[in-house]
Amino acid sequence: MDTQDIESVPFEPLEPGLYIVATPIGNLGDVTMRAVDVLRRANVIACEDTRVTGKLLKAVSATTRMQRYDDHASADVRTRLIERAASEAVALVSDAGTPLISDPGYRLVREARAAGVMVTTLPGACAAVAGLTLSGLPNDRFLFAGFLPVKDKARRDTLDELSAIETTLVFYETGPRLERTLRMLAEIWPQREIAVARELTKLHEECRTGFAGDLAEHYAAHPPKGEIVLLIGPPVAATTNADPDELLRDALQEASPSKAAGKVAKLTGLDRQTLYARAVEIKGE
Ligand code: SAM
User: Fold this and answer.
1) Which of 102, 199, 207 should be mutated for ligand 1, with most atoms under 8 A from CB?
2) Which of 31, 37, 88, 191 has a CA 20 to 30 Å removed from the CA of 154?
3) pLDDT band at 1 (very low <50, low <70, confident <90, very high)
4) What global pTM score does this model have?
């Protein structure tokens, strides 16, 4: 479909159902032609914030009515939207990017499907995928884990839980928390390659890669502004032939032989006792 098609059939009714509509994550040029079409022709748009979505609608010349919706909405609100989707076109958007991905919509989609309502999706921008493609980190397999918990203990527990996963990990992160998270990563995974993808698709888009310790220093000196995707490359042993002695020497600069052995065991999957014996030897050299 080209723009002319959209212009020529703007207000023919859409088939009733729930339309999951991805919107740009910063650059308006990333709105898809299908998204514009559906946003113009839907009977109602369920959105997180009518002011945010209102700006998008204005930009694409859509005058469709909006209704606030998030997953904390009462079951009644959800039921009414689903009933409406049985006879009209209901579009679901979030403030930016793909609905449901760390955004509202899961319950609505699940219940709409259970109710037998037509549900369709209009794919588009998603910060996690944009960050992954830009990072240069291995992407044959990856694990997206949304936002890390805010509290240190819970964040550490989540990272520990993910230690055994031998793929790139993708998180959403905020500027004020980035340095703290990087310091934690420097402790537990000093040798994994990290990418910080910031302000994707916007004027000041940046993707900085390195080890967590170096990146923490950088962002301590240059507090990051804007929105961030944090990506962590697979464990070293899974991607490189890193020399365990070298890893131990690095770790011993800041940690005891026992802690250094623990760290390197996590990184390499090698036996902790053997690494400990080697760490003691290296320390004595
Ligand atoms: N559903 C959205 C999507 O598909 O990307 C994500 C919504 S989540 C509430 C918002 C988080 O996504 C931000 O805190 C940030 O971590 C990430 N994000 C959104 N836009 C971004 C951008 N332009 N650059 C980098 N990260 C972005």
Assistant:
1) 102
2) 191
3) very low
4) 0.83
